[in-house]
Structure formats: C-alpha cells, structure tokens
C-alpha cells in the first residue's frame, strides 16, 4: 500500500495521527499532517485505512 497525503487539503484535525501514529505526525507550527512512512507494513494497513476514512478533509489517499 502507498499512502498519499495532500497537505494543502489538511485541516490539522489530528485524526490521522491518533489513528496511525507510526505513519502520520503533525507539524508543530500549524498542526498540518506530515507523512512519516508512505509505505507502511501490512500490520499497519487497518490503522492507515481508518486514518483515511476519518480524515475530515479527505486529504489521505491510498493506492495499491
């Protein structure tokens, strides 16, 4: 799985960080999400899918 984060769409809600902290973090200055790992292991797939589904700005896309 490949994770794509559109920082321009991000509204800094932090939902992705709570759902998948090994994949997402937030910038200190404005809270916009940053991608720590764009190719997480299969063990983290469910967490990343949850993060994408709860993102209020739909800023996270997943591809195979």
Automatic annotation (TrEMBL):
Requisite cofactors: [3Fe-4S] cluster
Gene3D superfamilies referenced in this protein's UniProt entry, alphabetically: 3.30.70.20
Cross-referenced SUPFAM superfamilies: 4Fe-4S ferredoxins
Record's keyword terms, sorted: 3Fe-4S, Electron transport, Iron, Iron-sulfur, Metal-binding, Transport
Domain 4Fe-4S ferredoxin-type: 1-29
InterPro entries associated with the record: 3Fe4S_ferredoxin (IPR001080), 4Fe4S_Fe-S-bd (IPR017896), Fe-S_cluster_ET (IPR051269)
GO MF entry, a single one: 3 iron, 4 sulfur cluster binding
Record has Iron-sulfur as a keyword: yes
Function: Ferredoxins are iron-sulfur proteins that transfer electrons in a wide variety of metabolic reactions.
UniProt-recorded name of the protein: Ferredoxin
């Amino acid at each position: 799985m490949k994770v794509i984060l559109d920082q321009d769409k991000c509204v800094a809600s932090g939902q992705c960080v709570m759902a998948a902290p090994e994949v997402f973090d937030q910038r200190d200055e404005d809270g916009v999400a940053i991608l720590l790992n764009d190719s997480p292991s299969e063990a983290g797939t469910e967490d990343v899918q949850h993060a994408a589904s709860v993102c209020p700005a739909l800023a996270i896309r997943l591809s195979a």
